[in-house]
Design brief:
The complex is a heterodimer of chains A (about 210) and B (about 600). With about 210 residues, chain A is mainly alpha-helical. Chain A has helices spanning about 5-10, 15-30, 85-95, 105-120, 120-125, 135-140, 145-155, 185-195, and strands at about 40, 50, 50-55, 60, 65, 75, 80, 105. Chain A has two domains: about 15-110, no CATH class; about 110-190, Cytochrome Bc1 Complex, Chain D, domain 2 (Orthogonal Bundle), CATH 1.10.760.10. Helices cover about 35% and strands about 10% of the residues of chain A. A five-stranded mixed β-sheet of chain B has the order 1-34-35-36-37, with no helix packed on it. A four-stranded antiparallel β-sheet of chain B has the order 2-40-39-38, with no helix packed on it. Classes of the chains: A mainly alpha (about 210), B mainly beta (about 600).
């Protein structure tokens, strides 16, 4: 058995059948090219949109046959966040990068993810899930909050006077240079969460930065 | 009485410094187990009650004696006081204080609300104050001075002295007025307890996520006049340190010890908040507290040790001068605030009698120090999951950081993964208790790890200044987010450990009944045997518990009290659970959302034997 095979055996404990299938699929594919940057997306009405792409297979937990949640992405036996650019290129060439099988988000959505988890999660909870303090933005969008309303609340905030009834306040971020320029991107991220495209606890790898961003 | 006799008494009273008498009065009250006169029970922070009516053999039949809704929904940290026959209960913002008559079915004697017309005494609106609290509207409780004063440190940083009998304001001083200057203090908040020493009250400040340069400020208890202020970082004179006399690791700290460790004037927005539970030793006349994270969370922009953030400080409470300092996490890269409680215990360490200080830090190490000299005696991990450092070098006192988990080494815009503990630490503010019977420390802990990605942000006065993203998840190999442990501070070892589905975010209480109380985020009030950890009692209170247990005795009967009211950082980070509820990861149940177990609401629950 080759190195890759034994590595997969070790990491994923696939049974032989699944292993064979997996190898057949991965070896039949050509070397995976470096992903292309994608420009920030908008829907037909001009609202900001995300770009999330998934690869061939999801990663399945062999025990439960359900998608794995907290994904550790490996490149040549190292967590992908800790390999050098050179190593990453190598993994792309020899297909050992499991990441490629999983998916990507565009750089704009990634920036939204990052801004959210720097500025908003202290009240709205991790992954836009909500907290004991502030509502789940994922649910807000699922329940029909559109881009205009989203933008408006973030710029102007919402205080006790405006209806925050439980002693909690949504600050106004209109003059905050760490937030205001990123509202479109945050909406992209929250919308992708709301549409189930980015799952809880999963850090999707990002596509390269688009030139004009 | 003859005139002569009168004047002798008067002069004797004059000769005796008032300060000493007030202090000894308070210390005497602390020794009376029927009262609970300070947030930590006593100056040493033992959180120990010598009452033993409720004990190992009967705690199983404990019943709810009475309950009291605070009328406030947000997270309730801290706990009530009992002075004589009156209980004082505080709330989250708006920081209401109630005085309850224990002789008359807990009738409300008075209620004080510092927010009037939507504004705090400092002039700031409640909305604005709420929006710059980092992690929910918590307050860690009021304290008592024997001249008949209850002191409240309100969220807008106002220090408010109330007449304990009537609830009338004696004086109000806003500690850190909002300013809009470039390095204004415009986003400071107050959440830590006001700390009474002699005839003074001292307060820290919160706001390290907003680029505030924090400090400890001491006020005269009778007039509210400011006595001294010591910053956590900056020029020596701002920090009240003496380059030749103030020591660290037993050596003088030297000139400009802080300025040298920051690029340019980054120290002006350096953080170093102070909001935990503090200690005081009246024999050594020393105040002990810890300072929080350097700001921002992006370490790349502030190369250097960032002194004296993340530091245990020992100060003379009369003039503020620092005796010794010990920085636990130089150049923080993970938000491991050093603010947690200081527990003062006289004990044997490595065979020698020591006046020890024991501190369970957010960074995952438990430190035992000589509190007189500042000598480092023991520094060991109190959760085996801790991985950001291999150990603490006992010669230099520095943690040996592992590059793989160093967010500065990995750099800006890189997601450093699997760091343990998470930013909320192996333990946050939830204070541990010292069991005087077994000599063990009863420690509520978190068992959570994180990914952390630092990046550049602008400093905008009055706005959040964070500069890192993080995601948190359960520590590898387990299905739980918390442990309640017993710790041997001499050997630096865990003696027993009970796992809990969620972080244990409530302060413990050890008692002479051989039992220790703590609360859980789902809302359980629990009692365990102190020696073994065996669970003896459990009751589900109306909301998740982030408050601290206390005990008192009234009309000969022992009571144990706890504030429920889920929230705080725990409520924010864990409310939704840490993983995708729909994804299969084996033990899904154990990772389920806190929101599936409990909802908001401040309620005091008081237990007694039937």
């Amino acid at each position: 058995m080759n190195l890759l095979g034994s590595y997969i055996m070790k990491k994923l404990k696939f049974n032989t059948f699944v292993l064979a299938l997996f190898l057949a699929v991965s070896f039949s594919a050509k070397a995976i090219p470096t992903p292309e940057a994608v420009e920030p997306q908008y829907d037909d009405d001009g609202n900001p949109m995300y770009y999330v792409a998934y690869g061939k297979g999801d990663r399945i937990d062999p025990a439960t046959e359900k998608p794995l949640n907290l994904i550790q992405i490996y490149c040549q036996d190292k967590a992908v966040d800790f390999v050098s650019e050179e190593e990453l290129e190598k993994c792309r060439a020899d297909e050992s990068l499991v990441e490629m099988k999983y998916g990507w988000m565009d750089f704009a959505t990634y920036k939204g993810w990052r801004a959210y988890h720097a500025e908003c999660h202290v009240c709205h909870g991790p992954d836009a899930m909500g907290s004991t303090y502030a509502p789940s933005l994922m649910e807000s969008v699922q329940n029909g909050m559109d881009w205009d309303a989203f933008f408006d609340v973030i710029i102007n905030g919402r205080g006790v006077a405006e209806g925050a009834q439980k002693g909690n306040v949504m600050p106004a971020f209109g003059e905050n240079s760490n937030v205001a320029p990123h509202i479109e991107d945050m909406y992209r991220y929250v919308k992708a969460r709301a549409d189930g495209k980015i799952r809880r606890g999963v850090r999707l790898p990002k596509l390269p930065k688009f030139k004009d961003e | 009485m003859s005139i002569l006799k009168k004047s002798i008494i008067a002069s004797a009273a004059l000769a005796l410094p008032l300060a000493v008498s007030a202090n000894s009065k308070l210390e005497k009250m602390m020794k009376d187990p029927s009262q609970w006169v300070q947030q930590s029970g006593d100056y040493a922070g033992h959180r120990y009650s010598s009452l033993d009516q409720i004990n190992k053999s009967n705690v199983g039949s404990l019943k709810v004696a009475w309950t009291f809704s605070t009328g406030v929904l947000r997270g309730h940290e801290g706990g009530p006081l009992v002075i004589g026959d009156v209980m004082y209960v505080h709330t989250a913002i708006p920081n209401i204080v109630y005085a309850l008559d224990l002789n008359d079915n807990q009738r409300i004697i008075w209620k004080y609300n510092p927010v009037k017309g939507g504004k705090y005494p400092g002039g700031e609106t409640m909305d604005r104050v709420i929006s710059v609290m980092c992690c929910d509207n918590v307050n860690r409780g009021v304290n008592y001075h024997p001249n008949g004063t209850i002191v409240l440190h309100a969220a807008d940083t106002s220090v408010i002295a109330l007449d304990a009998k009537t609830g009338k304001e004696k004086w109000i001083t806003t500690n850190l007025h909002s300013g809009t200057g470039k390095y204004g203090v415009s986003a400071s908040t107050g959440s830590g307890q006001p700390f009474i020493i002699k005839d003074t009250v001292g307060v820290g400040c919160s706001g390290a996520e907003f680029g505030v340069r924090c400090n400890w400020t001491s006020y005269d208890i009778n007039s509210g006049k400011r006595l001294w202020r010591a910053y956590s970082m900056g020029p020596d004179k701002d920090m009240l340190v003496d380059p030749n006399k103030t020591t660290s690791m037993l050596k003088p700290i030297g000139k400009d010890s802080s300025l040298k460790t920051w690029p340019g004037d980054a120290w002006k927005i350096g953080g170093g908040s102070i909001w935990g539970f503090y200690g005081y030793d009246s024999k050594l006349n020393t105040l002990y507290y810890g300072t929080g994270n350097p700001s921002t969370w992006n370490p790349v922009v502030r190369p250097g040790d960032n002194k004296w953030s993340m530091t245990i400080m020992a100060r003379n409470p009369d003039n503020g001068m620092a005796k010794w300092l010990y920085q636990m996490t130089p150049y923080d890269e993970w938000d491991y605030d050093g603010v947690n409680e200081m527990i003062l215990v006289d004990m044997k360490v490595k065979g020698k009698n020591r006046q020890a200080l024991v501190h369970f830090d957010r960074n995952g190490f438990a430190y035992t120090m000589d509190r007189a000299s500042g000598e480092l005696l023991v520094a060991e991990k109190y959760d085996p999951a801790v991985n950001w450092a291999t150990h603490v070098d006992m010669k230099t006192g520095r943690p040996q950081v592992v590059d793989r988990y160093s967010t500065a080494h990995q750099g800006e815009d890189v997601n450093t993964t699997n760091i343990c503990p998470a930013a909320l630490g192996t333990k946050d503010q939830q204070p541990a208790a010292y069991d005087r019977q077994s000599g063990l420390f009863m420690v509520p802990t978190n068992h959570v790890c994180m990914d952390y990605e630092p990046f550049k942000v602008d400093y905008v006065a009055g706005n959040a200044y964070v500069g890192a993203t993080l995601s948190m998840y359960p520590a590898p190999g387990g299905t739980h987010l918390g442990n309640f442990i017993a710790w041997d501070a001499d050997k630096g070892k865990i003696v027993w450990s009970n796992s809990e589905p969620f972080s244990v975010w409530s302060g413990a209480l050890a008692t002479a009944g051989g039992i220790t109380f703590y609360g859980t985020l789902e809302g359980y009030a629990k009692a365990v045997e102190s020696k073994t950890g065996k669970e003896l009692f459990k009751f589900k209170t109306p909301s998740g518990i982030i408050g601290n247990f206390m005990a008192y005795q009234h009309k000969g009967k022992q009571y144990v009290g706890i504030l429920s009211g889920v929230g705080g950082w725990a409520g924010i980070g864990l409310a939704a659970g840490l993983t995708d509820p729909t994804a299969g990861l084996g033990a899904v149940g154990a990772y389920s959302a806190l929101a599936d177990h409990t909802a908001l609401g401040g309620v005091l629950t008081v237990f007694a034997l039937p």
